[in-house]
Amino acid sequence: MNNSPSVSSTAQRSPSTSAKLAAEVAGTFLLVFGLIATATFAATLDGGAAGVGTLGACLSLGFAVIIGAYAFGPISGGHFNPAVTLGLAAAGRFAWKDTVPYIIAQLVGGIVATSLIYLLALGGPDGFAKAAIDSGFVSNGFGDQSPGGFGLGSAVIIEIVFTAVFVYVILGVTHSRAAAGFAPIAIGLTLTLMLMILIPIDNGSVNPARSIATAIYGGPDWLAQVWVFIVFPIIGGLIAGFSSRLIFDRETSR
Fold it and tell me: Which compartments is it annotated to reside in (predicted)?
C-alpha cells in the first residue's frame, strides 16, 4: 500500500499561518516595489527609452497586483492592503482575529520595498537619492504635497470612495457566483484605472501600507499628512465591507 498523500489531499491542505503571512509580505513588497520603483527610476526619465510617464506607473501597479494575486493569492488570499483586509473582515469573508497579523505583514512588505528602492537610489547619479527624497519619495499628500494642488477635502473624499469601490470589486469578482480565474485581472485593471485619476489629486493611495512605506522616506512634511491615507482608506474599506451583504449576499424569494 502507498502511504504517501494523494494529490487531492495535498492540494486541499490549508497553508500554515506563517506561509500566509509570508505571502502577504511578498505580495505587498511586489505591489509597492513595482509602483514606487517605476515612479522613482523610470517615470521621469525625460526623453529616455525608459521614460514611461504617469501611465507607465499606473500600469506597473496593475501588473504587480495581477502577478501577486496569481502567485500569492492561493496562499493568503492576496490582500496586500490593510484596508482590504479590514473590508473583507467586515464583509464576513475573513476572520477578525487574523487582521492584525496580516496588517503587520503588509507593513513589513511595504517598508522592505521602499528601503530597497532607497538603497538603489543611493547608487544613482550624484544627487539622485536626494532629489527623490526632496520630492517626497512618491508619498501621498494634499495641499502643497498634492501633485495637482488639491486640498484635504478632495483627498478624503477620493480615498473613501475609491477604496470602497475597490473593496466592492474584490468582493464581487471573488464571489461564488463570479467567473472563476479572472479575479486578479479585474482587480489589477481596477487599480490601474483608479491610479490614473488619483495621481493628480493625492498621488494615489487606497492602501495604508503603501502610504506608510513611502512617507517614512519622504520626510516630516509627508509623515505629517500620512494619517489621511491611513484613516480614510480604512473607512472606505469598512463601509464597503459592512454594506456588501446588501449587494452580494441577498437572495430573492421565489
Answer: Cell membrane
- Report the distance separating Cα 182 and Cα 165, nearest Å: 18
CATH of 16-245, one of 3.40.50.300, 2.40.260.10, 1.20.1080.10, 3.40.30.10: 1.20.1080.10
Write out 216-232 in H/E/C secondary structure: HHHCHHHHCCCCHHHHH
Quick one: pLDDT at residue 50?
A: 54
Q: Does pLDDT of 23 surpass 60?
A: yes
> What residue ranges do the domains of the chain occupy?
16-245
pLDDT digit string, tens, across residues 199-213: 999 999 999 999 999
pLDDT tens, position by position, 30-71: 999 999 999 999 876 554 445 678 888 899 999 999 999 999
In the prediction, which pLDDT does 51 show? 65
Query: What pLDDT is stored for residue 71 in this prediction?
Result: 96
**Using H for helix, E for strand and C for coil, what is the string for the chain?**
CCCCCCHHHHHHCCCCHHHHHHHHHHHHHHHHHHHHHHHHHHCCCCCCCCCCHHHHHHHHHHHHHHHHHHHHHHHHCCCCCHHHHHHHHHCCCCCHHHHHHHHHHHHHHHHHHHHHHHHHHHCCCCCHHHHHHHCCCCCCCCHHHCCCCCCHHHHHHHHHHHHHHHHHHHHHHCCCCCCCCCHHHHHHHHHHHHHHHHHHHHCCCCCHHHHHHHHHHHCHHHHCCCCHHHHHHHHHHHHHHHHCHHHHCCCCCC
With cell 502507498, the residue in question is 2
